[in-house]
TrEMBL record, chains A, B:
Record keywords, A-Z: DNA-binding, Transcription, Transcription regulation
Lineage of the species this protein comes from: Bacteria, Bacillati, Bacillota, Bacilli, Bacillales
SUPFAM superfamilies linked to this entry: PRTase-like, Winged helix' DNA-binding domain
Assembly and oligomerization: Homodimer.
InterPro entries tied to this protein: PRTase-like, PRTase_dom, Pur/Pyrimidine_PRTase, PuR_N, PurR_Bsub, WH-like_DNA-bd_sf, WH_DNA-bd_sf
Name listed for the protein in its UniProt record: Purine operon repressor
PANTHER family, A to Z: HYPOXANTHINE/GUANINE PHOSPHORIBOSYLTRANSFERASE, PUR OPERON REPRESSOR
This protein's record includes keyword Lipid metabolism: no
Domain Phosphoribosyltransferase as annotated: residue spans: 109-252
Domain (Bacterial purine repressor N-terminal): residue spans on this chain: 5-74
Length: 275, 275
C-alpha cells in the first residue's frame, strides 16, 4: 500500500476496522500498512476512537503492550436500538400480516438484508461479553438473523434442520415437542458443524412455547457444546413457555384473528442493552 | 450531531457510506449532518473517493446537480476476487468433503458469515450494472449467499421453498425436473414476496444440471418478474445443463469418489469482473 497522509489513513483505517470486526489488529500491522511511525498510528486511532464513541458506532477497544492493538466491536446504542425496535413493533401491528391460525407473515421483514443487519448488530452488542464461538439456528426463517449476528461477532453459523438432507454428512438428531402443536418432531444438525466445548448462541425468529429453542438447547448438550444465550426476534405471549432465559426484541401481546388486532411491544432486551 | 473537524468528518463519512451502500446521499445531507459548508464536504468527498478508488473498496460515484450527491457501490477488485476464488478452490479440493453419492460437504464454507459477505460483495460488483431489484434463492443453503449479495446491493431477498409452510400466506407453485435425480419436484414462493416487473437475480449455491435455477426462472415468469442473472457459487461439470446464462465463481472439474480426487477451478466469473 502506498504511503498515505493522515486524512487518507483515517478513511482506510475506518474501512479496515469495519471490515474486520472483533479482530485484534496490531499497531505494527497498521504501521506497516501505512509505512508510518507507530506514534502517528496511535494518534490516528485516538481520532477514530473518539468519533466511534461519540457517534456510538460500537466499541473500539485498545489493548496495550507489545502484543496489543485495537479491536472494533459492533453495537447499536440504546437510543438507536429503541428506534429500531419501535419501528419493528409498528410494522408488526399491520393487520394485513394476519394469516390463518394466528400466524403472522414476517418474510417482508426477514427478507430485508439491511434491516436484518441492523438487528444483528443490536444483538451482537448485547451478547458481546458472552464470548460467543458460534451461532445456531433452525432453517429456514432463523437463518437471516443468525447470519447477521454471526457476521458482526465474526463467528460461524450452524443450521439445524427439521428435514434430513444428504449433503450434511453425519448428523446428530433429537426428538422434541413442538410447543404450538404439541407434536413430537425431529431436528438434526451436521456433526461437523459444531465443535465440542464451543459457546453457542441460539437464534430464533419467532418463539411461542419455546419448544424449538429447547430442542436446539438439547442438541447442544448432545454435541457437548455450551449454551450461552437465546436471541429471539419476536416472542408471542403465552403462559406455557418451556424456557425462560432468552432475550427478545419484540413481544406480541395480542394477536386477535377476529378483531384483526395485533399488539406488539418491546421485548425484554432493554434490560441487557447498555453502551 | 456536533460540529466536527475534517479528520472526524472523514471517519464518520466513511462509516456512513459503508452502512448505506447503493443509496444516493445528498451533499446537503452531509452539510447539515456536520454543520459544514458544501464546499468543505466536497473536499472531504474528494479525499474519501481517492482512497476508496486507490484501495479498490468499491465505486464512489458523484452525481452532480441540485438533486445530486454521492453513492457508494460495494465491489471487489479483480486481484482480490481472484485470491478469494483461489482460496475457495483450495478449500473445495479437500478430500474429507466427499460425501456418499459424489456430493460435497459445504456447510463449513457456507457457514462463515464473513466469508459469505466477501463473496456477496464480489457478486454485487459483478451485477451492479443490471439494476437488480431483488435476489431470489432456494432454501436452505442458498440463503447465506443471497443475503450477502442482497445486503451489498441493498435489495430484498425472496426465498423459494421446496416444502410448503403455512406462514408464507398465499403461494405460487410450479413443478420442475431436478437435474440430478430427474424426479418431478415442487417449489413455491410467497406471492407477496416478489413485485410484478421486478428485476430479479437468482442465486444458487451449487448447480449441477441447473434444474433448480430453471425452476426459479419459471417461478419468476409466473409472478411476472424479470430474470436479470443467475449467480452460482459452485458449478459441477456436466454435459446436460438446461441453462447457460449464469455466472459461477468455481467449477468442479472432477469429483471422483473412488480416487478421492476433487479438482476445482475458477468459474466463468472473471469475464464479467472489471474494476
Amino acid at each position: 500500500m502506498k504511503k498515505l497522509k493522515r486524512s487518507g489513513r483515517l478513511v482506510d483505517m475506518t474501512y479496515f476496522l469495519l471490515q474486520n470486526p472483533n479482530q485484534l489488529i496490531s499497531l505494527t500491522y497498521f504501521a506497516e500498512r501505512y509505512q508510518s511511525a507507530k506514534s502517528s498510528i496511535s494518534e490516528d486511532l485516538t481520532i477514530v476512537k473518539s468519533i466511534f464513541e461519540s457517534e456510538k458506532m460500537g466499541y473500539l477497544t485498545t489493548v496495550p503492550g507489545a502484543s496489543g492493538g485495537v479491536r472494533y466491536e459492533p453495537a447499536v446504542p440504546l437510543e438507536e436500538g429503541e428506534r429500531l425496535v419501535q419501528s419493528l413493533c409498528e410494522r408488526l401491528e399491520d393487520a394485513s400480516r394476519l394469516l390463518p391460525g394466528g400466524y403472522l407473515y414476517l418474510m417482508d421483514i426477514l427478507g430485508q438484508p439491511r434491516f436484518m443487519n441492523e438487528i444483528g448488530r443490536l444483538f451482537a452488542g448485547i451478547y458481546r461479553s458472552r464470548e460467543v464461538d458460534g451461532v445456531m439456528t433452525v432453517a429456514t426463517k432463523g437463518i437471516p438473523l443468525a447470519y447477521a449476528i454471526g457476521n458482526h461477532l465474526d463467528v460461524p453459523v450452524s443450521i439445524v434442520r427439521k428435514d434430513h438432507r444428504v449433503t450434511e454428512g453425519s448428523v446428530v438428531s433429537i426428538n422434541y415437542a413442538s410447543g404450538s402443536s404439541n407434536r413430537i418432531q425431529t431436528m438434526s444438525i451436521g456433526r461437523r458443524s459444531i465443535s465440542e466445548g464451543a459457546n453457542m448462541l441460539i437464534v430464533d425468529d419467532f418463539m411461542k412455547g419455546g419448544g424449538t429453542a429447547q430442542g436446539m438447547a438439547e442438541l447442544l448438550k448432545e454435541v457437548k457444546a455450551n449454551l450461552v444465550g437465546i436471541a429471539v426476534l419476536v416472542e408471542a405471549a403465552t403462559d406455557e413457555r418451556v424456557i425462560d432465559d432468552y432475550i427478545s426484541l419484540v413481544r406480541l401481546e395480542e394477536v386477535n384473528e377476529k378483531t384483526k388486532q395485533i399488539k406488539a411491544v418491546p421485548g425484554n432486551y432493554s434490560k441487557h442493552l447498555k453502551f
